[in-house]
Amino acid sequence: MSQHPKNIIKQLIYVVFISIAVPFLLSFLNFLHPLFDSYSHFRIHLLLLLIPTMLLLAFFHEIKNLLIYLLLVLLASLYLYYLNQPFKPQLIDQDKNNTIKHIQFNLLFSNSKMDKVINYFKESQADVITLQEVTEEHRERLEELTRELYSVELQGEFPYLSWKEGAYPYQAYCEFHSIVGAVAILSKHPFNDEKSVCLQGEGLQWSQIFVKKEPVNIVSIHTHWPYPYAQAEQIQYIKPIFKHISSPMIISGDFNAASWSHTVKEIEKHSDTKVIDGLRWTISLKKQVPFIPNFKLAIDHILVSKEFQVKNIFVDKELGSDHLPVVTVLNY
Predict the structure, then answer these.
(1) What residues does each domain of the chain span?
(2) How far apart are alpha carbons 267 and 224 in whole angstroms?
(3) For domain 99-331, which architecture applies?
(4) What is this structure's pTM?
(5) Does position 220 have pLDDT exceeding 90, yes or no?
(6) Is the pLDDT of residue 199 over 70?
(7) What percent of the chain has pLDDT over 70?
(8) What are the residue ranges of helices labelled H in the chain?
(9) Cis peptide upstream of residue 52 (ω within 30 degrees of 0)
(10) Which parts of the chain are coiled coil (predicted)?
(11) pLDDT averaged over the chain?
(12) How far is residue 190's CA from residue 187's CA, in Å, rounded to a whole number?
């Protein structure tokens, strides 16, 4: 006996609903297994599929079940609204009169627009820049920022050539991966060489800088992709370093993880920092997922210790990478 077409459609929608709902719900158990944390990175995308699917199911049911599905749609929509909130500027306390401008940027190992990147950094007037996917070719260009050549007329017709301090004279690099390159920190302010650690091969560079003679700890981080890749193991390896880093602290980088993921929560917990609020789409996956237009992820984050208040944070313009730079202005 053949089924009614309406029942067939209903069953197909149920299959779609379950295939979306299961990973969505498992994402809230991301502390149990890295696979579930992988699901949490796509929580917004799953919601965008789940809501219309539940709406379709609602109209295949009698009034009682229809109301249940509509209630689920309402709850899912409210949660989507909650996740999709932009950053709201904070009222800065009067005693927070020191300012740091910071840029976080994954360069992309194949970035060929380094002239554009260099000019952007020079014009930004940022105090400190954290970078990921810095290749040897990139490093050669970035080291141009340590000094500038200029000439001074001395006696008669003979000029004297000398080096002038560049926009970012203090630079630290830490090799992460042979293909994608290093993590790095560029600073206008001097380093404390006694407070600097490179976890080579683990994607973490810590450098302490002196801003107006006061120490500020900067961490540049790049994690692997989540499960089935080695992100969870990497986080376990790097967590102990944070007990050696005191406040004030800024941790920034390409986490390859959403801000609500277990990965980011673990870093928050062990560093006593908090990720800056607000959803920021920082990477476009049009090359990796060409069949889904405008597919983006929010995986570049800035975590700060309690001394800082956030005056502003925004995603800036394209600079030859699949990631976009994130600019933050902090008061402390």
Answers:
(1) 5-83, 99-331
(2) 14
(3) 4-Layer Sandwich (3.60)
(4) 0.90
(5) yes
(6) yes
(7) 95
(8) 5-26, 34-40, 43-58, 63-83, 114-124, 136-142, 231-238, 262-271
(9) no
(10) 128-155
(11) 92
(12) 7
